Amino acid sequence: MKLWGRRRLRAIALSILYQMDLLEEWNNREKITQNTLKMEKIDDPKKREFTENIVKTVCENRESIDRIISSYLKGWDIERLNVVERNILRIGVGELLFGMDIPYKVAINEAVELSKVFAAEGAASLINAVLDKVAREKGVKK
């Protein structure tokens, strides 16, 4: 499945976050981001900015985002989640709650669509349920 537009940029942000999470390289955000954007041939300044903003938002708010996600995982710890699913949820919560100015329906839909492409089978349901609860209970979804 080919990804275009902002969905592709979210997929690239997911790749960057995946690398940082898997390698525990959270302090190398700039280097990993720039290397990935170069490798993906993302030259357009607006596209770079959108991708960088997702990564920056997640990194700067990761502890808060992880606490929020953990509070909605019944019987699970965030560290038990697959790395891909964990970072899709981080992107979704970042878009919902941390000033990214993304409509909640778009944030949830994009996270679900990313999970259909990159996460384990059945992950879309978990991601949809968690993000929907976050949006509803945090007052994003009205």
What does this structure look like?
72% of the residues lie in helices and 0% in strands. The chain is mainly α and 142 residues long. It has a single domain, classed as N-utilizing Substance Protein B Homolog, Chain A (Orthogonal Bundle). The mean pLDDT is 92.
Brief write-up:
The chain is an all-alpha fold and 142 residues long. It is built from 7 helices and no strands. Helix 1 (5-23) crosses helix 2, helix 1 (5-23) packs across helix 3 (45-60) and helix 1 crosses helix 5 (83-97).
Tags for this model:
142 residues; mainly alpha
Write the layout of secondary structure elements.
Elements: H1 5-23, H2 29-39, H3 45-60, H4 62-72, H5 83-97, H6 104-118, H7 123-137
